[in-house]
Design goal:
Elements: H1 4-8, H2 12-46, H3 51-73, H4 80-106, H5 111-119, H6 121-128, H7 138-154, H8 166-189, H9 195-217, H10 225-252, H11 255-259, H12 265-277, H13 283-300
Length: 305
């Protein structure tokens, strides 16, 4: 029997591993890009609307879209008890995270500090992961350290505590706790449900949580074209696209590895700010971008069998 073909052909496990890598790389890159664009759109929208009013409209729009998609797909009804974990995720990952961060920034916290706090999310998630049945190895801790160092380099020229009150920074920390716990809880308890139904519940609960605060603000919108365009982007791209991608990634992989993608968000946001808003992009930021990318690669690369 001629052994040439067997020598040249790669073994089946290699092909399978390459296929799995490609299938996870594409949604991961899309998630980072989509999530990063939300900082640019959110910065624009907050100049034309109140924080709670903006979030209530964003979450309600996404809830409607996911609800229509779920109604058309007619997933098997699981009962209210099965939907409860998605409601918890909506309160943590959506209402608490975004509500705390948006208000913290409005109270005077620097955007760079806010980005740094949320950039620490992978570290908090990794620290909490064992409580949710996940293990964090030495290579992942190295990736976490390099990723955080990259974020610090990217945000070095934007870190300043200004004249904000201590309450503004407490809110940023609350936002960090919300996204960290929400990510781990979703992976553990709310990733097996139909994606459309789960995300509809998450956004509907978050919209209801924001509603009383939006009423207190008097539903503050200025009706400008900039607000309409940025809000449309936040709903269609960030809430619908971004959280759908996050749902898929959490269903496929460990929560602490998915969380490490957040190290890439500040660098990519800096690139988008340079391209769309004319913000500076220095050699130091480029070095931070590369360092964060190496950290994410080390922390998310699957362990060889």
């Amino acid at each position: 029997m001629d052994g040439t073909s067997s020598t040249l052909a790669p073994p089946a496990p290699t092909i399978a591993a390459a296929s799995r890598t490609a299938s996870s790389l594409v949604p991961s890159l899309m998630f980072v890009l989509v999530w990063s664009s939300g900082y640019v759109a959110g910065k624009t929208a907050l100049a034309h609307a109140g924080a709670f009013s903006l979030l209530a409209a964003r979450f309600a729009g996404a809830a409607l879209a996911f609800g229509v998609a779920a109604a058309l797909a007619r997933p098997r009804w699981l009962g209210l008890r099965a939907l409860a974990p998605s409601a918890v995720v909506g309160l943590l990952s959506l209402a608490l995270q975004f509500g705390a961060i948006y208000v913290g920034v409005q109270w005077g916290a620097e955007v760079g500090v806010a980005a740094l706090v949320i950039g620490a999310m992978p570290l908090v998630t990794a620290a909490l992961a064992p409580w949710f049945g996940e293990r964090v190895g030495a290579r992942q801790w190295l990736g976490l350290a390099l990723g955080l160092a990259g974020v610090l380099l990217v945000l070095a020229d934007r870190l300043g505590f200004g004249h904000a009150s201590a309450g503004a920074y407490v809110l940023l920390l609350l936002g960090l706790v919300g996204i960290s716990l929400g990510t781990l809880y979703q992976k553990r308890h709310a990733s097996a449900i139909d994606m459309r139904l789960g995300l509809a519940v998450q956004h509907a609960v978050a919209a209801l949580a924001m509603l009383p605060f939006a009423i207190g603000e008097g539903f503050r919108f200025d009706g400008s074209s900039a607000l309409v365009a940025s809000l449309a982007w936040l709903v269609a791209i960030n809430s619908i696209g971004g959280f759908a991608l996050l749902f898929v990634l959490l269903r496929r992989g460990a929560a602490n590895r998915v969380a490490q993608l957040f190290f890439l968000i500040p660098p990519v946001t800096a690139v988008l700010g340079f391209a769309l808003l004319g913000e500076d992009f220095t050699a130091l930021k480029l070095a931070g971008f590369l360092l964060a990318a190496i950290g994410v690669y080390l922390g998310t690369r699957p362990v060889a069998p």
